Amino acid sequence: MAMARDLQAFSAVLDAEGPSQALAYLNAGVPHRYTAVYRFAGPVLRNVLLHDKAGKMRPDFLAAVPFDKSFCQFVLRDGAFRTGDSSADARLEGHAYRGVVVSYHSVPLVSLAGDLWGTLSHFDAAPLPLSDEEFALLEGAAKLLAPVLADI
Predict the structure, then answer these.
(1) The dihedral sign for the CA sequence 37, 39, 40, 46
(2) Model confidence over 114-136: pLDDT tens digits?
(3) Alpha carbon of 39 to those of 27, 46, 48, 127, 148: distances in Å?
(4) Which end of the chain, N or C, is less packed with Cβ atoms under 10 Å?
(5) What is the dihedral of CA 111, 114, 117, 118, to 10 degrees?
(6) pTM
(7) Is residue 108's pLDDT more than 50?
(8) Element (H, E) at 42
(9) Which secondary structure element, helix H or strand E, spans residue 41, and what is its range?
(10) How confident is the model over 20-43, as pLDDT tens digits?
(11) CA-CA distance, 140 to 39, in Å (whole number)?
């Protein structure tokens, strides 16, 4: 019998199989190709975990992203960020990755000390929505995942 898609099931996967499998669990419930964890590292964001639905190795361009060119800057500014189609999103007018990273849904990862550590995101090069239920799961997952990632 399949587990229900909820925070309890995510927590069980995280505890039993670790953060990489927990990312795979999150990704399995969405149409997005990628689910990722990025860590703030000064002027760049470093990818520390990536699940690719296509099963490919992480492309070099996803390994490190300049903070000022990332959509993660809006997570820092606004506390979360969602766009199903960046090419049609007026908030991203003039942004370098508008229409490149087309769908992007992200929440902050906050350390136990309360500092912004990084982001947890679903993204794709295609326009894809994310249901409110899956976004809520992403938010809850970030709270459970952040302490596990503290040593990365």
Answers:
(1) negative
(2) 889 999 999 999 999 999 999 99
(3) 19, 5, 7, 25, 13
(4) N
(5) 110
(6) 0.93
(7) yes
(8) none
(9) strand 34-41
(10) 999 999 999 999 999 999 999 999
(11) 18
Amino acid identity for residue 72 in this structure: C
Three-class SS state of 57: coil
Buried b (16+ CB within 10 A) or exposed e, 24-34: bbbbebbebbb
What are the tokens at 144?
């459970």
CA distances (Å), origin 109, targets 29, 59, 87, 121: 20, 23, 26, 10
Pair 11, 23: CB distance under 8 Å: no
First to last CA, the chain: 34
